[in-house]
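DEPOSITED CHAIN:
***
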Amino acid sequence: MFRTLSLGSLILAFVASLGLESTASAQLLARSKARLFGPGLKGNATFVERDQDGELFQRFLASVSDATPGDVLDVMVNGQDVGDITVADNGRGKLDLRTAAFIEPGQDVEPIPDNFPTLDTGDLVTVGPLSGYFFDLLDDAKQRVRLRGDFGDTTGPSGDVRYREIFKTSNGLDRRFTVQIEDAAEGDEFEILLNGEPVGILVATGAAQSEFELRTARFINNDDQEPMPRAFPAIQDGDVVTVGPFVTTMEIVEGTS
C-alpha cells in the first residue's frame, strides 16, 4: 500500500534536503574570538574560516562601543595593520573584513588582506587602546596565554611579575595579574606601574614572599585577590612593569600560535 505525502510534507522534505546540501558544501575550519580590554571602551573580535564549495572563506570582525564619536581607531593583528574603525555618532564602530569573492554589492565590508593568517589561541588583536588574545572556540580543552618578567638583584628584594589568561569554552575567560616579591621588610610599599600607568601597590607582609594579585572577579577564590578592572589591558610581549625601584619587561612563555 502506498502512502500519500501532503504538500506540506514535500516542502519540509525539500527544505531539509537543502540544509543537508548546504552543510555538505561548507566545512568550518576555524572559529576564534578575542575579548578586548583597556580604558574607556568595550570591544571584541571574531575570526571564522571555512571551505565554501572548495573556495576558502575568511572573515575578521572587530567592533567597539562606548567610544568617542569621530575617533579613528587603528586595528592591528599580531602587530600588523589590517585597517581602522571610524566611530559613529552612537559611539559604536566596526571593521568587517571578508574574502573578496563573498562580498555582495552594498555591504559595509572590506576585502580581507591576502595571506591573512588563520587566527588561533595566542594571536593578539589591538583596536586603539584595547587589546586581547584570540582563543579557539572549537577546542574545549583548557587554553592558556602566559607572560612573565623577573626583577631584582643580589643585594635586595627580588621577585617576578606574571600575567595569564586561561580560557575554556565551558566556563569562559579567567585573567590573572600577579606580582611576587621576596625578602622585603614588613610594611615596605612598592608601587606597581604597567607601561607607566599605576595599577596597584604591593605592601610587604614580612613573610619570605609577599604578593599582589588581580583576577577576573568571578574566579576569585581567596581574600588576597582583588577584582581585575575591565580597563586592565591584555599584557603584551615587551610591556614594561615597574615594581618600586625595579623594572622588568614581560615576555611570552606560553600561548603563541
The chain has one helix and 19 strands. The two ends are 61 Å apart (CA to CA). Residues 1-24 have pLDDT under 50 and may be disordered. The first strand starts at residue 26 and ends at 36.
